[in-house]
UniProtKB/TrEMBL annotation:
<keyword id="KW-0521">NADP</keyword>
<dbReference type="InterPro" id="IPR016193">
    <property type="entry name" value="Cytidine_deaminase-like"/>
</dbReference>
<dbReference type="Pfam" id="PF01872">
    <property type="entry name" value="RibD_C"/>
</dbReference>
<dbReference type="GO" id="GO:0008703">
    <property type="term" value="F:5-amino-6-(5-phosphoribosylamino)uracil reductase activity"/>
</dbReference>
<dbReference type="InterPro" id="IPR024072">
    <property type="entry name" value="DHFR-like_dom_sf"/>
</dbReference>
<dbReference type="InterPro" id="IPR011549">
    <property type="entry name" value="RibD_C"/>
</dbReference>
<dbReference type="InterPro" id="IPR002125">
    <property type="entry name" value="CMP_dCMP_dom"/>
</dbReference>
<protein>
    <recommendedName>
        <fullName>5-amino-6-(5-phosphoribosylamino)uracil reductase</fullName>
        <ecNumber>1.1.1.193</ecNumber>
    </recommendedName>
</protein>
<dbReference type="InterPro" id="IPR004794">
    <property type="entry name" value="Eubact_RibD"/>
</dbReference>
<keyword id="KW-0511">Multifunctional enzyme</keyword>
<dbReference type="GO" id="GO:0008835">
    <property type="term" value="F:diaminohydroxyphosphoribosylaminopyrimidine deaminase activity"/>
</dbReference>
<dbReference type="InterPro" id="IPR002734">
    <property type="entry name" value="RibDG_C"/>
</dbReference>
<comment type="pathway">
    <text>Cofactor biosynthesis; riboflavin biosynthesis; 5-amino-6-(D-ribitylamino)uracil from GTP: step 3/4.</text>
</comment>
<keyword id="KW-0560">Oxidoreductase</keyword>
<dbReference type="Pfam" id="PF00383">
    <property type="entry name" value="dCMP_cyt_deam_1"/>
</dbReference>
<dbReference type="InterPro" id="IPR050765">
    <property type="entry name" value="Riboflavin_Biosynth_HTPR"/>
</dbReference>
<feature type="domain" description="CMP/dCMP-type deaminase">
    <location>
        <begin position="30"/>
        <end position="151"/>
    </location>
</feature>
Amino acid sequence: MSMSMTMGFSAPMKFKANAVMNYNEQHHHALDASYVKRAAELSDLSAGFTSPHPNFGCVIAKNSKVFGEGYLYAQGTKPAEVQAVEAAGEYCRGATAYVNMEPEDCNNDNTSLSAFIKAGITRVVIGIRNPLQHLRGNAIQTLRSEGLQVDVLGEDIRGVSMEDALKSCLVVNAPLLYRSAFQLPFSVLKYAMTLDGKIATSSGHSLWISNEKSRSRVFELRGRSDVVIVGGNTLRKDNPRLTPRNGGAHLPTRIVMSQTLDLPEVANLWDVRDVPTIVVTHRGARRSFQKFLASKGVEVVEFDVFNPKKVAEYLYDRGYLSVLWECGGTLSASAILSGVIHKVHAFVAPKIIGGRNAPSPVGELGMVEMTQALELSDVSYEQIESDVLISGYVQPIPDLTQSTIDPTLSLKIIGGRNKP
């Protein structure tokens, strides 16, 4: 057999071997991605209950089969990793553990890591590193020193199949990522408006713009938040309760921002039997009313410099992770201009009410050209019966892998009551 014939025979075999290897690698990575995404989905089940800690989920699999799952139910409960190990039992030996975030042991007893090591887990796939600088990489180093293979998405494992899983890990712990990056709690602005951009009629009537299912989604957003903020105008006009109103949901602290304390003595928010209310105001405002609020059990906090940024910094210092702003146009514009809003949820109803003086969801931002418009990224659209929920980020989620989530669509906000 000639050399040319030999080479002609061996080259296709080599190509076939490489093709098989690439296929197996891609299949393996696709499984890794699906299990990490599943861990992120599990961790999201406890949103609102684990604060100030991250949302953790864990999946244990071997030979393409899942043997154990778990997620952190609430602060102080059994770690997700321990739950998954206990569920998998003897199948842990030689298996891979998938977690949406680098394990964290708040009590410094390495409970989660010990569970993996003692159970015989041989590989751990991590969605993202811990966003807290003093914890980042510690668990990874410990596991590797014990002989476990540790792979991190975007670092040790790359590829198109990883992008969706990585995004899931970022989104589910966005509050902690923003808090770590900006030293501010993750702030979401929520509003409901008509097709012509109004949140109430010219007389101020606003019940109801959105449909019942959309309002249920708002209750869900509240249940995922540590704090819900309204302004004095919203309190006077709507007399809200600001509770999730569905059994078992997390009850966020309610905050009223009012510079003058021109507030009514009778209000649902002054009932603090089930959930606390904090009123934040300018120093010295209506001392007599402050005493009245204190008699009701409402906490009053005074500020020398009173604006959304100072309030957000205060909430950061108190350890809150996430804030839902359910305010009117004046306060929402001020919050946006202060740079504290990170995400927007806009419920749009197929209604038109018109009116030059009817309020809009965002007040004056000082923009005179469309090139100045605030552009949202990573926008999503969801139909809720007759309404449409439009969501997007004002500031992209901080990504510890240094890769950027490419926005598929964009949306702009220019604000202003008198904008046509």
